[in-house]
Please model this.
Amino acid sequence: MGARELEKLARQFESSGDKDIAQGISAWAQVARARGRETFSLPEGVIRLPDLTIGGVKPKELSKLLTANGHRVSDYAEDLMQKMPTLKNQQTISLIRTTVSAMGITGTPTTDQIYEKANELGWDLCPTEVGPHLRLAYKDQPVNEWLYVGMKQIAGRRGDPAVFSVGRRDVGSWLDGAWAGPAGQWRPALQLVFSLRK
Model:
């Protein structure tokens, strides 16, 4: 399927009201055209998220912004935020959301295997500050949805490698952290966020 066919498919989904799916297909069409590829395989279950602006905010300021906007930050996530590097200047990045199974990996792959597959698919690890910024931007997140940020792990309070998770419970929206050791296994239905390579 070429870029034109993908764009036509995106218009069909948009006209039927499936805007999220349409955005995801449009994103893949853009990638196909940019790379000059006549054909492009669109993984099912992969959705393009709205572009996200990151950078220009220090960790302590991010923490205050999260609290001021009504988000809850776990102690674990707070530790990760204080250790994460941040960009001095703002930049906008494109993100995609996928399940482990939608990446074409069977079973319960390890963190390393997932990251290797993401690289094969043309996805990059997110800058570490994507977690807090995504929490601020994702205002209408459904209850009981959790997104795990594909990123270079940060050592948690006990030295264990961890990534940010963005979720919502009945009691509100959260920025949390999740253990993500290189050999740690992930269930097929878990949702991850990666940066779309330019």
Summary: The helical segments are 3-15, 19-34, 59-68, 75-83, 111-120, 130-137. The beta strands are 47-54, 72-73, 91-99, 123-124, 146-149, 154-155, 161-169, 172-179, 191-196. The longest helix spans residues 19-34.
